């Protein structure tokens, strides 16, 4: 199964992705995690990526697409993958479609974790990651509205999008995700 997880910063994507990948037994590809690891490397790409992450900008599409293409071809991704934080722009979504078509593999589902902005700001204030300071968060939310929300429309038009209410405890949100993925569970008699 191939699933894309999209949500604004602070929506709880990472937490939910970890639970879902255990449940589905598929690898988890978080472009944010890969980029954070790249930033720690003392390489030109690492320094370039740090500049974008530290200021809350999106990393250029070609860098992200090369990363995803490479990962898609590794054998553990053949049976399925959970994409977290990718695609984040229409150009990435279109290129992703081409990548999947070239490999004749389908995308099954796109989950949008939706959380109102006032909840996001509270959660991010508590999290304390390096790119969670106020100005950077504002920048990341701006990019989310301008560049990533159109990706949701792109998948909605293709009938792949399911909206998940992201307000609640991690368990409550996960139950909604699981239902979207597995279908409603039978209640025992
Ligand atoms: P995340 O962990 O998904 O919130 O991503 C952290 C940061 O990594 C973002 O603010 C971007 O700078 C960068 N990033 C992650 N995924 C992408 C992507 N698909 N396209 C561009 N930049 C990305």
Uncertain spans, ≥5 residues at pLDDT below 50?
none
Main sheet: strand order = 2-3-1-4-5
Global shape? globular
Give the CA-CA distance, first to last residue: 30 Å
Helix-strand makeup class: alpha/beta
What share of residues are in beta strands? 5-15%
- How helical, in percent, are the residues? 55-70%
DSSP helix count? Answer: 8
Please describe the biggest sheet, giving its number of strands, its sense, and whether it closes into a barrel.
5 strands, parallel
Average pLDDT value? 92
Helix-strand sequence: EHEHHHEHEHHEH
Number of E-type strands: 5
**Small-molecule binders:** adenosine monophosphate
Structure, explained:
By secondary structure, the chain is an alpha/beta fold. The protein is 57% helix and 12% strand. The chain is built from 8 helices and 5 strands. The longest helix is centred in the C-terminal third of the chain and has 24 residues, at 134-157. The chain is globular and about 60 Å long. It starts with a strand and ends in a 7-residue tail after the last helix. The mean pLDDT is 92. The structure holds adenosine monophosphate. The site of adenosine monophosphate has 16 residues, from helix 2 and helix 3.
List the helices and strands and how they pair.
Layout lengths: L1 E5 L6 H12 L3 E3 H10 L3 H12 L5 H12 L8 E4 L5 H13 L6 E6 L2 H11 L6 H24 L3 E5 L4 H13 L7
Parallel strand pairs: 1-3, 1-4, 2-3, 4-5
The site of adenosine monophosphate (AMP) has 16 residues, from helix 2 and helix 3.
